[in-house]
Write a structure and sequence with these properties.
2 copies of one chain form a homodimer.
Chain A: H1 9-17, H2 22-29, H3 36-42, H4 48-60, E1 64-68, E2 76-80, H5 82-85, H6 88-102, H7 115-123, E3 132-137, E4 140-145, E5 148-151, E6 159-163, H8 165-173, E7 181-184, H9 186-195
Parallel strand pairs in A: 3-6
Antiparallel strand pairs in A: 1-2, 3-4, 4-5, 6-7
The structure holds a DNA duplex.
DNA sequence: CCGCATCCCCAAAGATACTG
DNA sequence: CAGTATCTTTGGGGATGCGG
């Protein structure tokens, strides 16, 4: 893509990661290195040539790096550099903004393994620095543990939230405290919901 | 642009503002409404048809709105909606990330009126919630005032920083406390520089 | 099978001219 | 001033090929 040619940090950032698919590619690599085929599979709609081009561009831009797995694996993987990992706040703020108009999840939402952890990490964790809350969403388990996201249900969670993805959306995005089943200390969940209030979607 | 068709807040956000020029257009509108010609002038390299298309897309997406100025002005202006204004954290985090690899400003940097305020607002203000620091950069004046940016030099600033854009870059981005002239309390400037340390550029 | 490179087609970007 | 119309060029999307 032609560079913007402006001395501006935003324009420069977009020169590096502003092309189509680039930020989604970074999103996929946020939770660990992936192979070419893994990326191609997760980025449905991104054709092979575009993926190859993006990978080269992002590598040239210092956002990702390729690494040869030690034998006998043989294959190579892509991973975020320190620069690339530093994009986390960008993805988080984009996600928070996107939630304002995303709408509730469809009934037939496919929830691949690990989605709950990723969802909590990119959209919620920063707002719950002290909470210890477990989530049981459609059988997947993850927890907020004092500012970080951990797999499974905490033994000593202050509260456990149970529901479908739709319930969780109503609870965390729309702020409806009654949307999901809450065991334990409702107040600590209410506190989280309150912290998420700015940026709540308004009627369109 | 074809939508990503993923139930993901990041993908949805990029569907709305991920196209070329979109975020730069929002950047320009962040500090007040602008007319078509103003935008066309500031977004050098963005042709008229593309600008018209983006304005329509962003309006359809609820990010910006057009407003007829009351007579006798007659012309219409574009401004951010509440949705669009909520993109501020996205632009701020993008700017902070872009600073990691932007490099120092060129000698012949053109500094249009108001650039200093905008620069402080998008890249620094969030890190200085208590500071009262004045900046005199190449003749432009602006100040940090307890978490907000104000034009001019504060009467009762704790410190005043004076220098060229290059000096300010060395001070705030590279963290070189000796790069610019500091009158008053050096410690409060040092504190700001310290707060900006995460995300400092590393050697490429 | 994995990791691309090539080819074709079309949609969108860039540049320029022109109009209500 | 605020766009639309037209033309050319670039890049994305989809399918396929091909070496390791």
């Amino acid at each position: 893509m032609k560079p913007y040619n402006q001395y501006c940090p935003v324009a420069h950032a977009l020169d590096l990661v502003g092309e189509r698919w680039s930020l989604l590619l970074v999103r996929e690599l946020q939770h660990g290195p992936l192979r070419y085929s893994d990326l191609h599979e997760r980025l449905e709609g991104c054709s092979t040539n575009v993926l190859a081009t993006r990978l080269k561009d992002l590598e040239a831009g210092g956002v990702i790096a390729r690494r040869k797995l030690p034998p006998p694996a043989g294959s190579s993987v892509y991973e975020l550099t320190e620069e690339g990992a530093a994009l986390a706040p960008v993805l988080a703020s984009l996600a928070r903004w996107g939630l304002r108009s995303l709408g509730p999840p469809p009934e037939d939402l496919e929830t691949p393994s690990g989605w709950l952890e990723k969802a909590l990490r990119t959209t919620v964790v920063a707002y719950a620095p002290e909470a210890r809350i477990g989530f049981d969403v459609s059988g997947e388990h993850a927890s907020l543990d004092r500012g970080s996201v951990v797999p499974g249900l905490l033994e000593d969670a202050e509260a456990v939230v149970t529901g479908t993805p739709q319930d969780i959306y109503c609870l965390l995005v729309e702020g409806d405290i009654g949307a999901a089943e809450i065991e334990g200390d409702r107040a600590v969940v209410a506190e989280l919901v309150e912290a998420l209030a700015p940026g709540r979607p308004v009627a369109p």
